[in-house]
Amino acid sequence: MNKILCISLFFVLFSLQDGIAQKNQRDAILTGADQTNLYLHKLQGKRVAIFANQTTTIGNTHLVDTLQKLQIKIIAIFGPEHGFRGKADAGEHVSNDIDVQTGIPVISLYGDHKKPTAADLKNVDVMLFDIQDVGVRFYTFISSLQYYMEAAIENDKELIILDRPNPNGFYVDGPVLDMAFKSFVGMQPVPIVYGLTIGEYAKMLLGEKWLDKKCFPIPSNSKYKMTIIPCKNYTHESKYVLPVHPSPNLKEMQSVYLYPSICFFEGTVMSEGRGTDKPFQIFGHPTLPSTLFAFTPKPNAGAKSSKCFNQVCYGWNVSGSKEDVLKIVDNKIQIKFMMEAYQIFPGKDSFFLKNNFFNKLAGNNTLMQQIKDGKTEADIRKSWEPELVKFKAIRKKYLLYTDFK
Of 3.40.50.1390, 3.60.15.10, 3.40.50.300, 3.40.50.12170, which CATH number belongs to 36-229? Predict the structure, then answer.
């Protein structure tokens, strides 16, 4: 092969690789936060409050740091469950503080103080919301979103939501919440997996008037305005991989995918894998047959207190590659995990916690009874269908992105 031909082939291959790289870059999913050109002008010269945690990033840099460098005046940070830096356990009390890295006051919106008060917002012009959700009803960030939206309306503040992809946004499944079971782990009549991004969910809360009644009607002269900065190149068929883990026990995508199914065990005496390196991927109990998979939960930074610590548990290990776990999930909540565990549990009267937390997670008292009665999976799923059909029709009205097939 002559020298000229070799050089020509080199440049052809280089051009092809460069073209592929440019196409991949053009097709990459961008979050709302990534697209500063769409919202920075709305923050300039304003006093900003931001609802944020460790997922609030642009690339490897926290959005708060980026905005400060761009001379945006952030006067307050609101933090959700797990705290602004995302290090607190599930349900752990998080106090107000001063962020060491930025010197900005951090106000916890978890526990008794879930909604910003008039005093919290007194000197605020614009409220910004940017947190990575996982698309599951009992993951509390959508409850925090609702309170944040209500505070914006009640206090006449502009609200900007920077949208992020939903890693479980490629299906809809589970029982729709019965409002008699409303709680912070389920505030609206939506299924467990609802297939909406934070931005789409916010549109639904507003459009269906599911916010506090005193928010409506919104006065025509109100300064309140909700702006959603959408993601780019995201669809509801995307399998978006989270760049930052959203909470201490969802450190792997496998846990994120299995969370809607295995979190049910939080309402039982069984371990859901907290205190292991595979939370929400393994589950079991010391009284189950020793022939099953064995593991020993121990206190760690993400699970300082939980069930079955330092006890050998026997149960199931459904971990694997992301592809393997997606096949297990199969675009459904896998209630068969709970059904099988209950069937072989020796002390059935003590299987469900007495505080009825399972019913709050399920959003009804029907699922527990169906499991106790030995109903088939097909029968249970059939009982969900009427309300699921109604919800799916509502959901369609608020989609910002191409839907799954």
Answer: 3.40.50.12170
